Automatic annotation (TrEMBL):
It comes from the Bacteria. Residues 91-183 form the Methyltransferase domain. GO terms for biological process: methylation. Gene3D superfamilies: Vaccinia Virus protein VP39 (3.40.50.150). InterPro entries: Methyltransf_25 (IPR041698), SAM-dependent_MTases_sf (IPR029063). One of its GO terms (molecular function) is methyltransferase activity. Keywords: Methyltransferase, S-adenosyl-L-methionine, Transferase. This is Methyltransferase domain-containing protein. Residues 1-25 are annotated as: Disordered.
Amino acid sequence: MSSPAADPAAAGPDGARGPDTGSAAASLVGGAADARRLAADSLAAGDPTGWFETLYAASRAGNAVVPWDVAEPSARLRALDLPPGAGRRALIVGCGPGRDAEHVAALGYTTTAFDISATAIDLARERHPGSPVTYTVADLLDPRPDWRHAFDLVLESNNVQALPTGIRAAAIPAIGGFVAPGGTLIVLAAATTRIDSDGSGPPWPLTRAEIDAFAIGGLRPVSVDQVNAAGTTLPTRWQAIYRR
Ligand SMILES: C[S@@+](CC[C@H](N)C(=O)[O-])C[C@H]1O[C@@H](n2cnc3c(N)ncnc32)[C@H](O)[C@@H]1O
């Protein structure tokens, strides 16, 4: 597998980089701080996912920066060199404004992409006029019954790492439940944070047990790799592929 170039969103809300890494990265410092502050407030209020809509809406109003909101598809996704998708259905979990969904759709997959944030879905539709992707608001923690075992390709990129550990036990099997017989699940996620980090998140890296927990309900691991994430603030990331 090739080692892709820097992927700003690979860091997710951990996007803050040193001041020596250029103006684009420097702008992420505020984004990471915005995300962490809103996440902490939301968690304290007992609403672990409410901060996503708050952050997207504040960003749209020009009052915050969404640290993972970049135009380019995930570098790790691009490096996977997926096969053509004609005749196959793909589901993009937590799609945000649609960068990865557009990449997968361009490969020919009939693509559905969902996010819990209505503003994120509005942004996706506005930024990609005429897109073949079906963008829709949905909650991973309340999965649609008609999506069960319905997709040949499912992408989970950078989302579970932004959920507190307490609700991952529900999120992880829900993601696997979307994969059709013979289908593939791709999981891209933080594995470690910086050694000098104070440990606060998001992101909250996935443990080995959590990445292995995707392999349930008939899903079996094809490869589970902890890869270097040079060029991002996350030293290593999980790159895992499962098949049903
Ligand atoms: C860290 S961002 C990553 C976005 C995107 N996957 C990317 O890599 O650019 C996490 C995304 O998951 C979405 N999300 C969080 N909880 C969700 C849930 N329960 N159901 C659906 N989407 C959710 C957020 O709104 C946000 O867009």
